[in-house]
């Protein structure tokens, strides 16, 4: 007698949205950094190939966000992008965000949360 197989509980939509936004931010920042590396640091133009692929992945990931309007999905994403950029600043560029960076990131995330979770008129 085997144990009954249960399906794992479905992930809440908010978790999927945050995952899509987080992955999109990483893809966008990596893609933009490839251009930065070529144009500002003299890296090989071959850096543009993964950069372009990363930017295409970013665009696709934003379409995975459950939102009734693209503009609202993009606006909320802006806060996540700001916070992710500060993490990139620290992790990839070795510059620790200062208190003003952190305060600005917190304000941006609060704004994103308002946009995503705010009550909507029917």
From TrEMBL:
GO cellular component terms attached to this protein's record: plasma membrane
InterPro entries recorded: EmrE-like, UPF0060
Q: Pfam families in the record, alphabetically? A: UPF0060
* The keyword Transmembrane is annotated on this UniProt entry: yes
Q: Where in the cell is it found?
A: Cell membrane
Principal localization? membrane
Q: Where are the transmembrane segments?
A: 44-62, 74-91, 103-121
Q: How does it sit in the membrane?
A: Multi-pass membrane protein
Give UniProt keywords alphabetically.
Cell membrane, Membrane, Transmembrane, Transmembrane helix
Report the family membership: Belongs to the UPF0060 family.
What HAMAP family does the record tag this protein with? UPF0060 (MF_00010)
Record-linked NCBIfam families:
PRK02237.1 (NF002586)
Q: What is this protein called?
A: Uncharacterized protein
Give the taxonomic lineage as stored in the record.
Answer: Bacteria, Pseudomonadati, Pseudomonadota, Alphaproteobacteria, Hyphomicrobiales
